[in-house]
Amino acid sequence: GTVDFLTKVRGRGGKYVFMTNNSSKSVDKYIEKLASLGIAADTGDFLTSVDATIAFLKPKKYREIYALGTESFREQLLSAGLPAVDRFEGRGEDIDCLCMGFDTELSFRKLEDACILLTGRPEVDYIATNPDLVCPTWYGYVPDCGSVSIMLENATKRKPRFIGKPEPEMALSAMAKFGFTPEETVVVGD
After folding, report:
1. Radius of gyration (Cα) for the chain, nearest Å?
2. What is the DSSP letter of 160?
3. Which of 66, 135, 150, 171: disulfide with 144, CB 3.0–4.6 Å?
4. Do the Cβ atoms of 68 and 88 come closer than 8 Å?
């Protein structure tokens, strides 16, 4: 009934948006997967946790954002006009936000940088793209953003503000992006 339901949504002038916390997979891969299921979608029909995080960060006007994530994650932040850096010298005085995403390139240096910022700089905002503990792989699971945040919490006693599902910021970001109110919106999850 999915295809019929989505056709009715569009037929009534509505919009459907696929929201995903998994920022490691390109939207093109999701489009291919949905096409194989008979569901028509294009890039404008998706909102990733990185997209929602960017929408959350933009109005904050940070001087520098330490991007704890992949190079692709940092590049997405930069492409959106955000001042993202992936290293710093000394205490990183210009950094006023640590933003973390799923990081398949995680290193001890990045963890140490995060600990320096979170322990020694209580004014640094701490944002994470999603609270997922694990990310599925072909062989099982690997630690996702939520698991790394727990590790950092154990070391620094700081918890991030999560943006992705099930937090409301992701749905609110989708509504704002496409011009719908909460009363006009239904969220269906797995």
Report:
1. 18
2. P
3. 135
4. no
Whether the predicted model's global pTM rises above the 0.90 cut: no
Distances from the Cα of 102 to the Cαs of 1, 12, 22, 121, in angstroms? 32, 36, 8, 23
Please give the Cα distance from 155 to 73 (Å, whole number): 24
Nearest to 66 by CA among 93, 32, 33: 93
Q: Which residue bears the tokens 């994530």?
A: 69
DSSP strands (E only) in 44-179: 46-48, 64-68, 84-85, 95-100, 125-128, 134-137, 140-143, 161-162
What 3-state class would DSSP assign to 37? Answer: coil
Write out pLDDT tens, residues 50-87.
999 999 999 999 999 999 999 989 999 999 999 999 98
Rounded Cα–Cα distance for residues 154 and 175 (Å):
35
Question: For residues 128 and 118, what is the distance between their CA atoms, to the nearest angstrom?
Answer: 13
